[in-house]
Amino acid sequence: MAASSLSSSFLSSSSPSSLAPRRSTVSPPISVQFRPRFDAASKTTGRRFAARCSLGAAQDPKDDTPIELKYAAFPTVMDINQIRDILPHRFPFLLVDRVIEYNPGVSAVAIKNVTINDNFFPGHFPERPIMPGVLMVEAMAQVGGLVMLQPEVGGSRENFFFAGIDKVRFRKPVIAGDTLVMRMTLVKLQKRFGIAKMEGKAYVGGEVVCEGDFLMATGTGSE
Questions:
Q1: CA angle 11-13-17, nearest 5°?
Q2: How many CB atoms lie within 10 A of CB 31?
Q3: Is the bond preceding residue 36 a cis peptide, omega within 30 degrees?
Q4: Active-site residue, 124 included
Q5: Strand partners of residue 161
Q6: What gap in Å lies between CA 112 and CA 13, rounded to an integer?
Q7: Which residue out of 37, 43, 124, 169 is catalytically annotated?
């Protein structure tokens, strides 16, 4: 009798949920992506791989779109031939490839495709190709020229000059393979003296790599 009451007491104190088999918890698979990383300590064979792990990547919907079809190209507002019609620069010093946004006399956004075939890379630097900062500034000034060399502003190819720079900062190196996106905006125009002040910023991958204030002389000043 005592054994029977003890058995019934044990069974009643055990809830069905406590007797149910435990469900095993399985972590989602880890997505690992490998990308080459340049080792500055090695000059020629210094390549190693850095792995980035993401637990959330396995939970994202599968996207079968090839990577070459995922990203749209920059729009073309001015192609290289139209740029050559405005700027007097020619190879090897024409540093603007395409205009992607344009407001005559106000602002312009243009790109420079930085490639290993650019003539400055053999000397700057042979082991680590970096676009010289002064050429970034020159490229931005040429975008400023596209803004200012318009009838609305009164500029002309014969009388337009890069007059000065101020507060220039280089935030990150620009290397072969990058696309330099440059925005130049007119801040102040003194037609009497033929001086234009512009604000410039250059980006790679959405991050600022160079910025500064520019002075342009339009050569149309009058006493």
A1: 90
A2: 14
A3: no
A4: yes
A5: 217
A6: 77
A7: 124
Q: How far apart are CA 15 and CA 85, in angstroms?
A: 86
Average pLDDT, 10 consecutive residues per value, the chain (223 residues): 47 46 49 45 43 46 84 92 92 96 93 96 93 97 89 63 93 96 95 89 97 86 48
d(CA 88, CA 149): 10
Lookup: tokens for 137 = 């500034």
Taking 3-state DSSP, the helix, strand and coil percentages for the chain, each rounded to the nearest 5, stand at 20, 35, 45
Distant-in-sequence, close-in-space partners of 28: CB < 8 Å, separation ≥ 6: 55, 58, 59
User: How far apart, in whole angstroms, are the C-alpha atoms of residue 202 and residue 170?
Assistant: 9
pTM: 0.69
pLDDT at residue 130, rounded to an integer: 96
Q: What is the DSSP string of 59-127?
A: GSPP----GGGTSPPPP-SB-HHHHHHH----TTS----EEEEEETTTEEEEEEE--TTSTTTTTS-SS
Cis omega before residue 125 (within 30°)? yes
- Would you say 120 and 175 are in contact if contact means Cβ atoms under 8 Å apart? no
